[in-house]
Design brief:
By secondary structure, this protein is α/β, with parallel strands linked by helices. Helix content is 47%, strand content 14%. It contains 17 helices and 13 strands. The model has no long low-confidence stretch (mean pLDDT 92).
């Protein structure tokens, strides 16, 4: 089939996690004989978004560049809907693919719905059934799934959530999570390019002392913990408590390294820099690229994070995750034992860290559990389903 006869599929991204999880889908559709991808970026996040594009060698066909300092959700939602409506009218796609649960997703879904363009929701069916956590993401995905023609659920659990909400069974497809596809691709590519610890540390602004003690190969291997955090529901007291827990952890285990790429949001930067900035045992660095983050995650002992993606990625690398949230829309990892909910209570965080640090048997058991989020072929499954449905 000639390229001009291929059906256009609009893939929409606005944040770094969306780029990571949609990049394999874009690649899969690019190889289709009947479909052609059009990559649209809303620019909901800017710097971290551009980092992710660079890792996967992608460049958006359309970039709204909507990010504004201190942007509020109502204003951002309106801007995304307006720009997306105009773009979809111009492109005339056969379908719109969205990933996850951001403002980009909900506003773009509504723009497509108003134009009667079929929607495919990648990572559909995730639920906490608590509209306040994660906020506003829980509501975003709850509103996107019912108006989607294809709900690409990562697991049976997420598919069952959709069925229980009366989403027609013919719209629900279990594919696995595309983040596993992205992880495997990045690891495979990095294996062909030796990455020097000193070079990575300089690029990521990791202190030389931390690199020498924890990242450099050879000599005595020292244990260290990778930390991330960015959730809105933890702004304020939540991040204050997280930082106090990290401080206590550094005092209780002075031989343990603590590396924290700090999210750019001022609500994260302020408490983290204020409380941890003077701690010589905690290395605070800027956000790193996805490829560098995978390199670091492969080499840490475990991860302390509130990220959804990390809950899905770390099990593939044999890394336990302590999830700094009260609830999660990814309970499969908790049920499997690869993830444990610790919330933002310092006592709980310290207690679960101690279990992994003090009990080698427990650490070994949790690091050897299987990843419940797929086999790395989710993107191919999504493409196959779209081809079958759109080219009949």
């Amino acid at each position: 089939m000639k390229n001009g006869n291929k059906k256009r599929i609009a893939l929409v991204v606005g944040t770094r996690p969306e780029v990571v999880k949609m990049a394999p889908v874009y690649r899969a559709i690019s190889e289709s004989t009947s479909l052609s991808p059009v990559l649209i970026s809303t620019g909901q996040h800017r710097q971290m978004l551009d980092q992710a594009f660079a890792v996967f060698g992608l460049k958006p066909d359309i970039d709204f560049n909507l990010m504004q300092p201190g942007q509020g959700l109502p204003e951002l939602t309106a801007r995304v809907m307006t720009h997306m409506s105009q773009a979809l009218q111009s492109i005339g796609p056969a379908a719109v693919l969205l990933q996850g649960d951001t403002t980009t997703v909900l506003a773009s879904a509504l723009a497509a719905f108003y134009q009667r363009i079929p929607i495919g929701h990648v990572e559909a069916g995730l639920r906490t059934y608590d509209y306040a956590a994660p906020w506003p993401e829980e509501m975003n995905r709850r509103l996107t799934d019912p108006i989607s023609r294809w709900c690409f659920a990562p697991t049976d659990w997420s598919a069952n959530n959709l069925l229980a909400e009366h989403v027609p069974a013919e719209r629900v497809h279990v594919t696995g999570n595309t983040v596993v596809d992205a992880l495997f691709w990045v690891r495979e590519r990095s294996q062909g390019h030796s990455m020097n610890a000193e070079e990575l540390s300089e690029r990521c602004q990791i202190p030389a002392a931390f690199c020498s003690m924890y990242l450099r190969q050879g000599g005595v291997r020292r244990r260290w913990v990778l930390i991330t955090g960015h959730r809105r529901e933890s702004f304020g007291d939540g991040f204050e408590n997280i930082c106090r827990a990290i401080t206590e952890l550094s005092e209780r285990y002075p031989d343990i390294g603590l590396l924290y790429p700090v999210h750019m949001n001022p609500n994260v930067q302020e408490p983290v820099r204020r409380i941890l900035g003077g701690n010589p045992r905690v290395a605070l660095i800027p956000p790193v690229t996805y490829a560098d983050f995978i390199w670091l995650m492969e080499r840490c002992d475990f991860v302390l994070s509130d990220s959804g993606g990390v809950q899905e990625e770390a099990p593939s690398l044999g890394k336990p995750v302590l999830v700094m949230r009260e609830t999660t829309e990814r309970p499969e990892g908790v049920r499997a034992g690869t993830c444990v909910l610790v919330g933002t209570d310092p006592n709980c965080i310290i207690g679960e860290c101690a279990r992994l640090l003090d009990d080698p048997g427990e650490y070994r058991r949790r690091s050897q559990l299987a990843n419940p989020y797929g086999d790395g072929r989710a993107s191919i499954k999504i493409r196959t389903l779209l081809e079958a449905d759109l080219t009949r």
